[in-house]
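User: I'm writing a tutorial on reading structure tokens. Could you give me a worked example: one chain, its sequence, then its tokens, then a sentence or two explaining what the tokens reveal?
Assistant: Sure. Here is the example chain.
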Amino acid sequence: MSVATIESHPALLAPFGILLASIAIFPLILKHHWERHYAKLCASLAVITCGYYILRLHASDRVIHAMAEFGSFIVVIGALFVVAGGIHLHIPRPSSPLTNALLLFGGSVLATLIGTIAASTLLIRPWLHINRSRFQPMHLAFFIFTVSNLGGLLLPTGPPLILGYLKGIPFLWTALHCWQQWLTAMSGLLLIFIPLDIISWRRTAHDSALSGESRFLCHGKWNFIVLFALLLVIVFIPNGFRELVLIALAAISYYLTPRRIFEANGFRWEPLLEVGWIFLGIFGTMIPVLDYVELHAGNFHPVTDAEFYWSTGVLSSVLDNAPSYLTFLALALSLDHFDINSAREVALFAVTHPQRLAAISVAATLFGGLTYIGNSPNLLVRAIAQSRDSPCPGFLSYIVKYAFPILLPVLGLTALVSFRH
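And here are its predicted structure tokens:
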């Protein structure tokens, strides 16, 4: 089926819109019903879209491709979730603005090395623990901004930048060309976070007494080796065989890790199941949306680096940032007659158009933090926090109270500093 067919079936875009609206609204007005039935809704919308593609449009190849991507996605998420859950970090210091700022900064650096999914899963529990006496939705939002999204900018250790690496962009390219944008965004976020956290800390300082073990402890250290092995598998082993190796490594880690470590982490399967059902709906209903974007990509006509930055970013905030990154990377390459399927030409484009590639890379990575669905670790972190009864902003509250007034100005500052010409 040609993607042009989507023009004759605009109603196919509706399930994706219904899913986004449901995620945003139902947890607010029908919280208990949503918790009981969200899996059915996600699966139903995906079945409606995929069924129409198979039975009416005879485009089963598109559905098979999307479901294969979903399968690979959930195996990667699940493997990292399980292995990171087998590492228990105990930070003895009580929460303070300085401690929190250092953890956010260090977490972003760690995410650069092991990927945002692994770092988010590993650090969200100690983050919740040290702030347990005064945890606020603000703390979750800044963790998502810095660790779950900004941490993915410097190295292609996870989506979306790993897709560019697989297409031919050198492994260290973003570290060499995007470190200024990383530093600008990190500095801006910490300068906003520290005063807000000082206010919170002063209100609850009497409740922050140190208790329990007084030393820094790390149980399950050997799982760091498994995390590194998972990263190597994700980067170097092709699809198909990759998923089998990931499942095997995760299973070995799970069965060899003492139960007490999982218990200390409050490890549960519910966060992974919630992310799995929601992204099943997203991957299934997103098929016609991606077809529509592909069909109309040429109509966007971004010319300047700033236009590529904002176009890539807006799309990455409402769709999964990986296909958004590939869409605009392919568009940028085509404008200069480069072929995205040629590793040599992609590498040459990285040399001849560094600012344009930086604009696409920075936007696809950072704008994923504007919504919960913009980047997969966002929902996973929120689900883990909810499973531990921590206060979390809802879908709309996250956007209105935190993403737009805090993250969006920082993204604008990054554009002003780096992509204004």
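What the tokens reveal: The longest strand covers residues 88-90. The radius of gyration is 21 Å.
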